[in-house]
From TrEMBL:
Its EC number is 2.7.1.-. The keyword NAD applies. Pfam families: PTS_2-RNA. Belongs to the KptA/TPT1 family. It comes from Deinococcus roseus. This is Probable RNA 2'-phosphotransferase. Removes the 2'-phosphate from RNA via an intermediate in which the phosphate is ADP-ribosylated by NAD followed by a presumed transesterification to release the RNA and generate ADP-ribose 1''-2''-cyclic phosphate (APPR>P). May function as an ADP-ribosylase.
Length: 191
């Protein structure tokens, strides 16, 4: 999606601003001349100033509200609030400094039917992102799958994967991450 499509002219729109922040903090900080460090952090003041230039009503309080109240909890501030970053989903290379975590027995992935054959043959791949995203519960996976149509839920034998040497991480907002999920660890979740 292009930057122009993400900006809403006239008044602030929560969803469009959240998408803009995702675009800037996950994929393209340079679009608004933002500098991202190796851990994915951007100076909060610089972000507010850059977005405010495009959306004059935007300010630090609105940014804080998005970070605090966003249902998906996509963003985090540094401890002192001087920096902000996306919790996961980056297509630009960043080191989120996550430690390996022991996954539960099963994790879930929401998708749609048109991708199912490919996934069952090739597994889940990270594509242009740094990790495959997995959910702890069926409801979250269903919400993820719903974004593209009627959801199909896959179960991931996460503990078995870990025993076979695969590494898992958990982002600050509870999304489970791994490099890929080979097809032998996947099953179709039946309703």
């Amino acid at each position: 999606m292009e930057l122009a499509q993400l900006l809403y002219h006239g008044c602030m729109d929560w969803i469009k601003l959240e998408k803009l922040l995702s675009f800037l903090l996950r994929h393209s900080p340079e679009t608004l001349n933002l500098n991202m460090d190796a851990s994915g952090w951007v100076e909060t003041d610089a972000l507010v100033k850059a977005v405010k230039f495009k959306e004059p009503k935007f300010d630090l309080k609105f940014l804080q509200k998005i970070v605090k109240d966003s249902q998906k909890q996509r963003f985090s501030f540094s401890e002192d609030g001087s920096k902000i970053r996306a919790n996961q989903g980056h297509s630009v290379k960043v080191d989120l400094q996550l430690s390996p975590a022991d996954p539960p027995e099963t994790l879930y992935h929401g998708t749609v039917e048109r991708f199912l054959d490919s996934i069952m043959q090739e597994g889940l791949k990270k594509g242009d992102r740094q990790h495959v995203h997995l959910s702890l519960d069926l409801q979250t996976a269903e919400k993820v799958g719903t974004r593209r149509g009627k959801p199909i839920i896959l179960t991931v034998s996460a503990r078995e994967m870990q025993q076979d040497g695969y590494v898992f991480y958990v982002s600050d907002n509870g999304v489970w991450l791994t490099e890929n999920v080979p097809p032998q660890y996947l099953d179709l979740q039946l309703s």
